[in-house]
């Protein structure tokens, strides 16, 4: 009688599961993993080119993004669009996302970043950008595992899992502190040089 688990028998090959942005979004669903879902209107997942060489990652969705489910809208989105235009790019050339997928609103509770981070890491793995540009302190600190503010690390390429990462200021911060726009532009010029882009400014 042939043993059922004979060493000589090969198991059929299992096809690896290929993840996509769509499958990650489906897995995220109408997320209730932390308390932020109680005050949100929509999950803000990400938008743009799924094969982008450059990925921008912000901290948290703002109110306009919460209403539309699209990252970087409103005044900060308008400024980001101008920054992209100066780089010779549009929103369709890059991929945009945030660390948190829900707008924290007036919530006083500190969200569990690790819950959203796992989905962001999966997004990065699918897009596989050449360069990540973090906008704001929280995104940079969480991805790099550091506590430094943006001012201390901006202008210097960092590394996240083999990907070059440029930390710079969030557009919302630049709207409140326009004196830092020159520094942000210098950061973006380094990104452009690394990608071989020519400025349209």
TrEMBL record:
Source species, domain of life: Bacteria
Uracil-DNA glycosylase-like domain ranges (all copies): 45-189
SMART domains per record: UDG, UreE_C
EC number(s) on file: 3.2.2.27
Family: Belongs to the uracil-DNA glycosylase (UDG) superfamily. Type 4 (UDGa) family.
Catalytic activity: Hydrolyzes single-stranded DNA or mismatched double-stranded DNA and polynucleotides, releasing free uracil
Keywords noted in UniProt: 4Fe-4S, DNA damage, DNA repair, Hydrolase, Iron, Iron-sulfur, Metal-binding
Name assigned to this protein: Type-4 uracil-DNA glycosylase
Source organism of the structure: Desulfoluna limicola
Top EC class of this enzyme: hydrolase
């Amino acid at each position: 009688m042939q043993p059922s688990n004979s060493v000589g028998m090969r198991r059929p090959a299992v096809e690896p599961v290929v993840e996509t942005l769509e499958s990650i979004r489906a897995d995220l669903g109408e997320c209730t993993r932390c308390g932020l879902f109680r005050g949100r209107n929509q999950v803000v997942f990400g938008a743009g080119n799924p094969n982008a060489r450059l990925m921008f990652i912000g901290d948290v969705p703002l109110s306009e993004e919460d209403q539309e489910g699209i990252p970087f809208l409103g005044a900060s989105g308008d400024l980001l669009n101008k920054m992209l235009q100066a780089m010779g790019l549009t929103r369709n050339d890059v991929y945009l996302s945030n660390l948190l997928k829900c707008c924290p609103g007036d919530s006083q509770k500190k969200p569990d970043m690790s819950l959203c981070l796992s989905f962001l890491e999966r997004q990065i793995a699918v897009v596989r950008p050449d360069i990540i540009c973090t906008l704001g302190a929280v995104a940079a600190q969480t991805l790099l595992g550091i506590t430094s503010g943006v001012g201390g690390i901006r202008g210097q390429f960092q590394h996240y899992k083999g990907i070059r990462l440029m930390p710079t200021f969030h557009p919302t911060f630049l709207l409140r502190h326009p004196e830092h726009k020159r520094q942000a532009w210098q950061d973006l010029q380094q990104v452009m040089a690394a990608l071989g882009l020519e400025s349209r400014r």
